[in-house]
Amino acid sequence: MIEREPGIQPIESSTCGCTLAFKRTGRKYQPAAALAVIDGLKVQSFTGVCEYYHAYAAEPGGVYRVGVGLFSEEESLPSELWAEFLQKPPGGFWKRFVEDVALSSSGGEEVRLDQLSCGSASTGELRAMMSHLGTAGFSAGLAVWISVPVLQSTGSPFTVACRTSILPKTGERGSVQDE
């Protein structure tokens, strides 16, 4: 794992990202949400950059909101914005990604993704409304480099999960297992 300088945020502000609404069901919800996002990227065999954000305060009803900005030179990610009123992403990559994150978190004791409360936001909007928890470069779904947030030299739940979640996907959607 390559450690890059802290605070890297290379994705253009206008690039489409998404917000994910996790229902907290346990105490370790932040690492569990980060692992679900990373698992979603593994299942998609994502190659590119992921900027990861979170809302500092939990929303009513125990909702923990995470923001994900993605950029890939290898694959064309949809740039259309979608909103919560659509109740789900319109299709393509974002729909599959949200479904994979939901599958990854469905059996968890700490969080469960509420797909109906997810929405899109530009990466600039994520930066304005949330706290940056790190950036990582992915190759075929595996984190190959990370940049920790500026004020967290040891890392965040996201960067720690990137460091420890290096197992290849199993071929079963939303599932990563020890070999």
Write a brief caption for the model.
It is built from 4 helices and 8 strands. It is of the alpha+beta class and 179 residues long.
Mind sketching the topology for me?
Elements lengths: L1 E2 L12 E9 L4 H15 L4 E7 L8 E9 L20 H15 L4 E3 L5 E4 H7 L1 E9 L2 E6 L9 H8 L15
Parallel strand pairs: 1-8
Antiparallel strand pairs: 2-4, 2-5, 2-6, 3-4, 3-7, 7-8
Helix pairs in contact: 1-2, 1-4
Q: Find the count of extended strands (DSSP E, 2+ residues).
A: 8
- Beginning-to-end CA distance, first to last residue: 20 Å
What sort of overall outline do the alpha carbons produce when their principal axes are compared? globular
C-alpha-based Rg, rounded: 15 Å
How much of the polypeptide forms β-strand, as a percent range?
A: 25-35%
